[in-house]
Structures are given as C-alpha cells and as structure tokens.
TrEMBL record:
It comes from the Bacteria. Coiled coil: none annotated. Gene3D superfamilies: 3.90.1070.10, HAD superfamily/HAD-like (3.40.50.1000), P-loop containing nucleotide triphosphate hydrolases (3.40.50.300). This is Phosphoglycolate phosphatase. The lineage of its organism: Bacteria, Thermotogati, Deinococcota, Deinococci, Deinococcales. Signal peptide: none annotated. InterPro entries: HAD-like_sf, HAD-SF_hydro_IIB, HAD_sf, HerA_central, P-loop_NTPase. Residues 262-340 form the Helicase HerA central domain. Pfam families: DUF87, Hydrolase_3.
Length: 608
C-alpha cells in the first residue's frame, strides 16, 4: 500500500470536522450494503439510526427495480430508489416510477433482443454480460448510436442516452428538494464513478474496485456492510472528515503570496466552520468576501448574502444568483425568502440599503432564525455571509445576535466587520478561520491579537503584518488540517474578481467625473470636438466626433490611457490597444470603436 493510500485509509476518520451538512446518504446496493446477497440486520439497524438522526437515505443501484427485495422496494427505509443504473427512479409513497431519460429506442431494443444474447430487461435498461458486449457494440454501430453503455464487474448495461447513477441521483435529489452538495455517496464498483464525481463526498467501502478507488475521497477500512456500519458510526459521532484534499477544485484560492504560490482555504473549512473577515474600512474586506462567494457559487453551493449597504449587487452577474431589495424595493417576507432558497435552488443577495436600522435588524433576526431551521432540514443554504456585522450586532440587537450565535453553531457562516473590538465575544469565539486586511487602530489590533493568540495562531506575526498591508493584500490565519496546529499567517495579494464592486460601477457608468479627469476630444490641429464625463457620455460622443479626431486619439493611445488610468477598465483599455494596431479608418474605425464600447457598457450595465 502506498503512503497516499495509507493516509486515505487511516487519516480521514480521525479528528474530523462537523459533517452536519451531509443530509443525504446515497448507497450502492450490491457489494456495498449487502454482504453476499443480503442486507445484514446490523447494517439495516445502522441505516435506521442514520435515518432517525435526520439523514435522508437514497438507494442507487444497477439492479432492475423488480429484482430488489420486496421490503427494500416497498419499505420506508429509502426516500428514493435510483434503479437500473439511474434510468428508473422510484420514490417512497408514490405509485409511479419515473424514467427521467426515457426508454431505449424500440428499434434498437428489438435489434439487441434479436441477437439472442443472454439478457435482462428493465423498464429502461437492457443488460447482458461480457463477452456479449461485442454483439452490443455491433448493434449500436449499425444503428449509429442512440444509447449509452456502462460496465460493472462484467455486467454490460445498455441505457437511454444520459442515464448514469450520478444523473439519476441528481434527478431524485431535485425532486426531493436536496442538493448534490449535501450528499455523501458510498459505493464499490465502476458504475459508482459518476455519483462519486458529482457528490460532495465520495466514500468507498474496503472492497472497492481499483479504478473507482482513485476517485474516492475516503476509503473505509472494512468491506461492504461492515464498512457502511463503520461509516455511519463515524458520521453520527461527528468524527468523519468531510475534507476532499485530492480535489483541487474544492480549494478556495484567495490569491498568491510573494513567491507566487496560491493561498487559499478548503471548501470544508468554510462550510463546516466559520470565517471572519476583519480590517479597516475600505481595505478590501468586501472584495475578499465577494471573491469567496463567486467561487462557492461556481461550484454549485447555495449562498445567502445579507448586504446592509448594497455592496454585493454586482454578484447578480453570476449564474443562479438573484438580488432582492435595494433600488427595486423592499424585500419579500421571510417566508418567501425561505421558499425561494428551498425550492428554487438559487443563491440570494438581500440588499437592505433602503431599510432603517431597526427594520433591518428585526428582519435579519427573523431571517437568521428561519435559515437555521431550513439548514437543519435541507442542509441549505450552504454558506451565509453577513456584511458590516458591527452595524448589525449592536448592543440593542439582542434577538439578532442570539440567532446569529445559533447559526454559527451549525457552521457555514462568514461575516465582515471593521471593528473587531465592537463585536460580541460570543460571536467571535465561534470563529476558527480569520481573513485579515490592514488595520492600525490599537484597540482593534489588540482585539485581533487576543483572538488569534487564544486559538494558538501566531498573534505576534499578525500584529506585525496588519498595519503594513497594502490595499489588495490580506493575511489568512486558519487551522491546519487535522487541527494539529495552525500555520503561520499567510500574506497574499488578492485574486481578481469575476464581478466588479458596485460602488465603482455606479461612478464608472453614469456619474460625471470632475473636469480635470474627463476625456476631451480634439484633432491633430488642436480643434476641440466636445468632452465625455462618464463612460455613458464617451459612448454617445463616439457617434458625433469626426473620424479624424477618433483616429488621432486611437493611434496616440489616448483612449487606452484614459480608460486604464481614469476609468480603471483594463479589459476595455486592452480592446483599444488591439484596435489601434489594426489601424482602421473612416466608417470602419467608428463602427469598431462604438461596437467595442457598447458591448462593454452593456456588460457592465447588467452587473449594476
């Protein structure tokens, strides 16, 4: 056994993070739950214990539905059965069986049957065994495709296009109101690969196939049912490690240090623990919080942002992100917010900028209370971000603070604040990861130093680093893997954001710049042709300025310089640079300029 294999056998099940967000347990049947042909009574009892603890159980099997034991098919142990390798899905309490990928083409199925190979037929599956896959290949080649083929321990399964265990599980979870990001998958064989790669945590029993072992996050020390019992015991005792160290996409990259090395934090540290982003006003805290939000959303996690001042509205540019409140009006009732999060599956930014302090705090207290219940039931939203916490957790905000403390006990909460010394100790004590930007106030430095020292971090290094951090720089203090000590504070330069900061965008698009920063159109002879005080005016002026003035400024690099140094729009400045090298003239020049600026303006307008 290699050192890596040994670590994956021995380390994951000791000293672990909370796994309360893993609400759904998806199990393969043969070779995973079963020992021989049967489900051991002790394994059934362990599954019942997990169910009683609030976990939702889903069976995901390659078997034809009717080939499963009667008590499995019609019992109440599994909320859903994903059978026929994902092609047929049965839900507890429902009479009908769903075929989310349809059936095999009748002509293709008839051709397979006519080959007279030994086979089984399900509602949507045609199954045979090696070496009869050669006959299957010949039929599919003659038909030009029209089906997918899965192998599993010598079994050959012909399925409707798109049907896999992972895809069938995803359909079942959507119907049940759960997320793949809340799902632990446990299996042993080749056809479990798709659900292993799609689910939040992939756990293999000890008798796992070598090819599937490579994509498992954890490998149990025991085979089949005995391994499952061991898994459930660790899960219920809170000693199962949900980290996925060999999945690089689960590492949130915040930026790079002076050596050019990435600095980041694992998803599990954010989702199972709590994060504080602290620093002086306008030091880049909201930028960093938005950066993490973008990355989590890109991985399919559901985020709820509580935004007191409307600083996160640009996140609406992200897929599956909905911004409510702010200029569009007041927020819906809390019950409607919960309905959106539970059934729509989108992430939300809740803009409280039009609310009074009292109304905002009352609403937020009620919202946090409801979010805590939704997370206990569904495991979502996966991450809650509160900005400007020092303005929320005021001395008179008792209900809000109490409900925040309860959410912090669940983990998966982050907050942004500029006065660490003004935050309740009961809140700060529940934070384990610290993302710090510059601060120079002695009372805030003392508060941060005390907090870090109390958790074993290098407080001396933090107090030396923080005053000297430039805008765009930060330091990360986070527990080391396995809680075996904490790394030294990691200083880094923050990465670029996908979306831009809303305060800058408002100025960028419409607000007039002071006279000395405006763009003045001239020609080579010095004749003036008007001015642009914003990007909107710049866009409008391009249609009326003589072409000789446009060519004059483009070839001199004036457009590029103004867009880069005044507007701070690097992408559009690069467009001007490329256009200058093409050297267009006349109508072509005007067309290319106006199209470039119009496209960029429309893109930015969508972000506001």
């Amino acid at each position: 056994m290699s050192a890596a294999d040994h670590a994956r056998h021995a380390a994951p099940l000791s000293g672990a993070a909370s796994t309360g967000r893993l609400k759904v347990l998806a199990f393969d049947y043969d070779g995973t739950l079963t020992e021989g042909e049967h489900l051991h009574p002790d394994t059934r009892a362990a599954l019942r214990s997990a169910q009683a603890a609030g976990h939702v159980l889903v069976l995901v099997t390659g078997r034809i539905l009717e080939r499963l034991p009667e008590d499995i098919r019609h019992g109440d142990l599994f909320a859903a059965i994903v059978a026929e390798n994902g092609a047929a899905v049965s839900f507890a309490g429902r009479m009908a069986v769903a075929l989310p990928f349809g059936r095999l083409n009748p002509e293709l199925l008839a051709a397979l049957v006519n080959r007279e190979v030994p086979h089984e037929r399900g509602l949507a599956l045609f199954a045979t065994r090696v070496p009869h896959d050669r006959a299957v290949e010949e039929v599919l080649r003659a038909a030009g495709g029209g089906a997918s083929v899965e192998y599993n321990k010598g079994a050959v399964m012909v399925l409707p296009p798109g049907a896999t265990k992972g895809a069938g599980l995803q359909y079942a979870l959507h119907e049940l109101g759960y997320s793949l990001r809340n799902t632990l998958a446990c299996g042993d064989a080749e056809n479990d690969r798709s659900m292993f790669t799609m689910c939040e945590l992939a756990v293999a029993v000890g008798n796992v196939s070598p090819s599937v072992k490579a994509v498992a996050d954890l490998v149990l020390p025991w085979p089949n049912g005995k391994g499952v019992r061991h898994l459930i015991d660790r899960l219920l005792s809170g000693t199962l490690d949900s980290r996925t160290p060999h999945r690089p996409e689960r590492q949130m990259v915040l930026g790079h240090n002076d050596a050019g090395e990435p600095v980041g934090v694992p998803c599990a540290a954010l989702l199972d623990g709590n994060l504080a982003v602290l620093g002086a006003s306008r030091s880049g805290k909201s930028w960093l919080a938005g950066l993490l939000t973008e990355q989590l959303c890109a991985l399919g996690y559901q985020v709820c942002v509580i935004d007191p001042e409307g600083d996160y509205r640009t996140l609406r540019a992200l897929p599956h992100m909905l911004v409510l409140g702010g200029p569009e009006g007041h927020l819906p009732e809390v019950s409607q917010i919960i309905t959106i999060l539970e059934y729509a599956g989108v992430s939300l930014v809740l803009d409280f900028s039009l609310y009074s302090v009292a109304a905002r705090n009352t609403y937020t207290a009620s919202l946090l209370r409801a979010l805590r219940a939704l997370r206990a039931q569904r495991g979502r939203p996966h991450w809650i971000l509160l900005d400007e916490l020092q303005n929320l957790c005021t001395p008179d905000a008792g209900a809000l603070t109490r409900n925040l403390e309860r959410c912090l006990r669940q983990g998966g909460v982050a907050f942004v604040a500029y006065r660490a010394g003004q935050l309740p100790a009961s809140v700060l004590q529940k934070v384990r990861s610290w993302l710090l930007t510059t601060t120079q106030l002695p009372e805030d430095l003392d508060a941060v130093g005390t907090l870090l020292a109390g958790q074993g971090h290098d407080a001396v290094r933090a107090l030396a680093l923080l005053p000297g951090l430039a805008r765009g720089e930060a330091a990360l203090f986070s527990p080391a893997p396995g809680d075996e000590g904490s790394p030294q504070g990691q200083r880094f330069q923050a990465s670029p954001r996908v979306s831009l900061h809303v305060r800058h965008l408002h100025k960028y698009l419409l607000a007039p710049l002071p006279p000395e920063r405006r763009f003045y159109f001239r020609d080579a002879g010095g004749t003036a042709h008007g001015q642009a005080a914003s990007l909107w005016e710049f866009r409008e002026r391009l249609n009326g300025v003589p072409p000789e003035s446009l060519a004059y400024h483009l070839t001199r690099g004036d457009f590029e310089a103004w867009l880069r140094t005044v507007i701070h729009d690097e992408p559009l400045a690069r467009q001007m640079h490329k256009l200058a090298h093409l050297n267009p003239t006349g109508d072509e020049l005007r067309t290319r300029l106006t199209e470039s600026v119009q496209e960029r303006y429309a893109e930015l307008e969508r972000l506001t």
